[in-house]
Write the structure tokens for this entry.
Amino acid sequence: MMNIAVIGSGTMGNGIAHVFAQYGFPVALIDISQPALDKALATIGKNIDRQVAKGALTEDDKTATLARLTTYTSLAEGVRAADLVVEAATENVDLKLNIFRELDAHAHAGAILASNTSSISITKIAAVTKRPEQVIGMHFMNPVPVMRLVEVIRGYATSDAVTQRVMDLSRELGKTPTEVNDYPGFVANRILMPMINEAIYSLYEGVAGVEEIDTVMKLGMAHPMGPLQLADFIGLDVCLAILRVLHEGLGNQKYAPCPLLVNMVTAGRLGVKSGEGFYSWGHGTKELVLAERFRK
């Protein structure tokens, strides 16, 4: 059984740790803050409780899953025994490059180093290590315990053996891996982000309101949620960062972020994480409430 280490205990990190532990893997969950790690364990526990309530897991499964999780505030200690490290830190290129330099120095020579990045070049990340053939992308979808897709991204130097091992491992987690090559945005965000950006442009140019845009996409295109609601869940800052990667990497004006998106991020209106984006999220119910700025 492979030993797993996950860097970052936020939404994606705790979800990835949860799934690996649920499927029997010992997991080291690593963050710089012990309170953040404690919060992550509490979140994992609550998410497993939902699975138990639905009959997907038992109380014994919950106990066993949580027992497989160990927390660390030291990256060097946390990755020492890891056969696979999955980095799930903030989508910031400089931060990720620094983490991979550290991972290369402290993970054992045979360890596979994976990033959960949704847009940053795996080739660029691999280039700061002495093992580029062992660096790969594992882009899980949110919420990780529910969503079946894993986008497996091959860097320029990623070996066939490492790619196959990660594809197989993803299947062991009950996921459906899809192999893609290392180009800006990969597949998921190269298609998704321009759609979200175009929805924001439609709002910005007065084509329709927030609810109308989301309703068209939900009822007309069978999307489970509209693009503006989805943007709020992803985080408008994350959407902006990915669009900038696409715009810079592909050099095409069609990826230029909408000025409304830029202004909202600058103003701190980031969606669910800040309590307000296109919708208001601070009212404590599941009802969709428009942000005051977008009410007619």
Notes: The beta strands are 4-7, 27-30, 69-72, 84-87, 112-115, 135-140, 149-154, 176-181, 279-280, 289-290.
